[in-house]
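Please, does this match?
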Amino acid sequence: MSLFNLLSVSASGLEAQRRRAEVLVENLANAETTRTPQGGPYRRKDVIFEASKSEQPFQSVFQKEISAGPQGVRVSDVIEDTREPERRYIPGHPDADAQGYVAFPNINPAEDMVDLMAATRGYHSNVAAMSAIKDMIQRSLDLMR
C-alpha cells in the first residue's frame, strides 16, 4: 500500500466525520423545533457509516482489478428517528393540541454534544494521520536528493 493510498483513506474519514458533525449540529439547532414544513416536530437524524473502496489515483487499472486495495469510510445513509415525539404540557403554546400538549423532538443535547466531541476527535485523528503521511513523503523525498 502506498502512502498516497493512505492519504485517500484519511481523506474519506475526514469527509465522513465532517458530515456526521453537520448532522449533529443540525440536531442541536433544532432541539426545540415543534413545527417543520413536513408537519410535526423536527426528527432527530443519525448518520450511518460503511466501509468503501478508497480512491487510488496513482494505481494502474490492472492493479485495481487484482488487489482489494485500502478501505475508506463513507456515510451510507442519514436516517431519521422514528420514535414518538416527546410531549410536554404547555397549554398556551401555538402548537399545543386540544389537551394542551406540545410535541417536541426526541433530542438529548448532552448526548449529541458527546457525539459531536467524538466526531471532532475522529476528524482531528484523520488530520494527524494525514500530517504523519505527509511527513513520511517529505522524508522520502529528502532521502532521494
Observations:
- Helices lie at 3-29, 61-66, 109-144.
- The CA atoms of residues 11 and 126 lie 7 Å apart.
- The chain has three helices and four strands.
- Strands lie at 45-53, 71-80, 86-89, 101-104.
